[in-house]
C-alpha cells in the first residue's frame, strides 16, 4: 500500500465561476466583483494550465480531461469530490451536496483512464444516497491514511457519519470521526470539507487542531496521527483561510516527494513550518488566486489521485 502516487487526474474548466449552490455552506467562496464570467474562466484556465505545467515539469503523470460546456458544471475543476481510485482497481463514486455538481460524474472519464492503461476492476457507487439527502464528498470529506488503513472525517452537511462508516467497512478503513469548526461572522460553523483543515503525508500531517473545538476529539485525532509516526505540523485558522490545509503530497520523477500547495498557502506559512515540511518533501506551489476565491477550494481539491494498477 502506498500513501502517495505519481498519477493525478485533473479536469480543465470551460465554464468555471462561483457556484451559487455550494456557497451556502462553503464559506471560503467569494464573489469577484466586476469580473465577467468569461474573464473568471479565462483566469482559472491560466492558473490551471500553469499548475499542470509545474506538476509535469517535476515528473508527475497528469491526465488532463477537458470539461464540457453542457451540462453546466462550474466546479468540475475539483474532481476529488466525486471520485476516488484505489490500488486494488476499485473506483468509488460519491454523493454530492450540490445538484449541479452531480453532473460532474462522467463515465467517459473512466473510459479515458482505461485507454491510458489504468485497470478498473470494480465500481463502488454511493450516489443513490443523494436521493435521501445524504452526502460524502470523496477525498474532500475523507482523508485516507492508506498505509495504516485509517480514514479521517470531519462531519458536516457534506459528510454523513453513517455513509462514512459504510465506506470504511467497504474499503477496510478504521474510521476517525470528529467535528471541525471555523469562525464565520463571529459564529462557529462546521467546516465543509476535512481536506481544508488537514493534510496527510507519508511521514507527516498538517492540521489545524484549533478547528476541533471538542478537546477529547482533538486529542483523539492527534493521538491517531502520532500513533502512526506522523510528524504533526500545526497550522492556525488564519492559515486555513489561506488554504494551507489544502495540500497534497505527490511523487515526481525518480519517486521524489513533492508537497503541492497554492502560492497563498505557501505565503501564509512561517519559516519554521516551511522547514518542518521540507524535511519530508520538496514544496511545489502555484498561484491559484481566482480558483480559490470563486471555487472556495485549492490545490488539493484539483487533484484526484490515481492509485489504480496499470496494464
TrEMBL record:
InterPro entries: Amdntrnsf_FN0238. Transmembrane segments: none annotated. SUPFAM superfamilies: Pentein. Keywords: Hydrolase. One of its GO terms (molecular function) is hydrolase activity. It comes from Flavobacterium zhoui. The keyword Hydrolase applies. It holds the Pfam family DDAH_eukar. This is Citrulline utilization hydrolase CtlX.
